[in-house]
Amino acid sequence: xxxxxxxxxxxxxxxxxxxxxxxxxxxxxxxxxxxxxxxxxxxxxxxxxxxxxxxxxxxxxxxxxxxxxxxxxxxxxxxxxxxxxxxxxxxxxxxxxxxxxxxxxxxxxxxxxxxxxxxxxxx
Length: 123
Fold this sequence. Notes:
Elements: H1 8-51, H2 65-68, H3 72-113
C-alpha cells in the first residue's frame, strides 16, 4: 500500500517546484558556460586580429599561408567572397543596362505618341 504523505495537490506542487529548481540550476550552469565561451571566443578573435591583420585592399589570391599565417579555409573563404562580390557587380551592371534600355524604349514610345521623333544611331 502507498504511503499518504499529504494532500495530492501539495505533492504535485512539490514535484513541480523540484522540476523548476532543477531547470533553474541547469539554466545557471548553461549561462555560466555561455559567458566563459564568449570570453574565450572574444579573446581568440582579438588575438587573431592582432596576429594576422588583413587589410581590405589586399587581393586574396595574392595571399599565401607563409606570408600572412592564415589557413587554407580562410583563404578559400576570402576568395569566394571576392568572387561573389565580382558576380554581384556584374549582375548589377547587367540589370542597370536592362533598366536603362527599357526606359529609353518607353521614352521613345512616349515621343512617338506625341508625334515627335528622336535621332537614333544605327550601329
